[in-house]
Design a protein that fits this description.
CATH topology: Growth Hormone, Chain: A
CATH class: Mainly Alpha
Radius of gyration: 20 Å
CATH superfamily: MFS general substrate transporter like domains
Shape: globular
Distance between the termini: 22 Å
Number of strands: 0
Structural class: mainly alpha
Number of helices: 18
Length: 407
């Protein structure tokens, strides 16, 4: 089927659906808040401490709540109305970012406050993600899961692009308090959009059993489902050695390139643009029947992108490397999210996305590791080491995991 027809079909069952459009809008503004917060938070921590190690610790606190509450968040997403959970999380994030912006306006900039904010935001996002991802699947159904999650990811990347640019410009020219208040406003708009959601979706299958029983069922599935175990191990490895590269971006921008907040915002925007382009190509090509092979290929290109980023000496080359890296990592996200929901029983999909968030919560180990590696070897070599490790992971999968290639 021609790619244009695939594109129209995806548009019909996603943006042609009123509730998916609202969820898409919510996702855009959520991506705006998340990307902008990472720009400002990482830069503030680096300015206060002068160390990528502390940036790694702050980002670890940002992502580690997924490890602590991810499975429980997934069980809650299966147990309660996902629309209500999305709304409540957006409102809480708007309030938290707004309060933090007000505190910064009174010059209360302290490392402890930054670390607390990282942990609070990370916890709220860990609860929000399983509900949003499983609700998107509810709206489009299993046969259209890759297309639906791809479109949702496109919206998220659009928001990331705008959030990174806005946060960088506002931080440099107005102030960090204004940047945080703008991010809070984005989540407030997301809440208003989520408040209008009506349909529970064609694939919705709420599980009203007690949360303890919900969790017991999930653990039994994790023990018996070999495909789920394989995907989890792949995600843990890629999470530690792949996505942690954002830890060293402030040092790369300010020390190696001699630039400031605005250029760091452009670097994060390049990540968003790369992710947007990668997922757009996935939508145009349609869902591959060999998702496992495609997943292995994206990890390989991810590793090559990190090596290129580590070798980069000019801003232009850094931007190009970030676009390549983000494009493949975005496709990787969509594939893992869709595969994990397809390979479990329908009523466990929220919990499957909780497992996805849990595995993402292991990524803080990678943030700390690359921060220490940058301190010892320098930013460039630290990035190259991580890229080579991803390529070794690909080699291991090709030689020793035929089951993944058949997914």
């Amino acid at each position: 089927m021609p790619s244009t027809l695939v594109d129209r079909a995806v548009l019909r069952y996603t943006l042609g659906n009123r509730d998916f459009r609202l969820l898409w809008g919510d996702t855009i503004f959520n991506g705006f808040g998340m990307s902008g917060e990472q720009v400002v938070l990482s830069l503030l921590v680096y300015q206060v401490t002068g160390s990528s190690v502390w940036v790694g610790i702050a980002l670890a606190l940002y992502f580690v709540p997924g490890l602590l509450v991810g499975v429980l968040a997934g069980a809650i997403a299966d147990w309660m109305d996902r629309r209500a959970l999305v709304r409540r999380c957006e409102l809480a994030m708007a309030v938290a970012l707004g309060l933090f912006g007000l505190l910064l306006s009174f010059d209360l900039l302290q490392l402890n406050l930054l670390l607390v904010m990282a942990a609070v935001s990370g916890t709220l996002r860990a609860v929000y993600s399983p509900a949003r991802l499983s609700y998107a699947y509810d709206l489009v159904g299993p046969a259209r899961a890759v297309g639906g999650l791809s479109m949702l990811n496109i919206g998220f990347r659009v928001g990331q692009l705008a959030g990174a640019l806005s946060a960088g410009v506002l931080t440099q020219h107005v102030g960090v308090d204004a940047a945080y208040l703008s991010l809070a406003a984005g989540h407030a708009i997301a809440y208003l959009l989520a408040a209008r959601l009506r349909s529970s979706g064609v694939a919705s299958e709420p599980d009203s059993t007690p949360l303890r029983e919900n969790l017991r069922t999930l653990f039994a599935e994790m023990r018996s489902n070999r495909n789920l175990s394989i995907i989890m191990m792949v995600m843990i490895s890629v999470g530690i050695f792949g996505f942690s590269y954002i830890t060293v971006l402030p040092e790369l921008a300010t020390v190696q390139l001699g630039m400031g907040a605005q250029e760091l915002g452009v670097m994060h925007a390049a990540r968003a643009a790369g992710g947007l382009s990668g997922v757009t190509v996935l939508v145009l090509l349609g869902a591959s029947r060999r998702k496992g092979v495609l997943l292995i290929g994206t990890i390989a290109i991810f590793g090559i992108g990190l090596v290129l980023l580590g070798l980069s000496t000019t801003f232009v080359i850094v931007i190009a490397a970030l676009v390549v890296t983000a494009a493949t990592s975005a496709v990787y996200d969509v594939l893992t999210q869709s595969v994990m929901q397809v390979i479990v029983p329908n009523k466990l999909r929220g919990r499957a996305m909780g497992v996805w968030v849990l595995v993402v919560g292991i990524e803080p180990a990678g943030h700390i590791m690359i921060g220490a590696s940058a301190l010892i070897f320098g930013v460039g070599l630290a990035l190259q080491i991580n890229g080579v490790v991803l390529l070794l992971i690909v080699l291991g999968l090709l030689l020793g995991s035929p089951r993944l290639r058949k997914l």
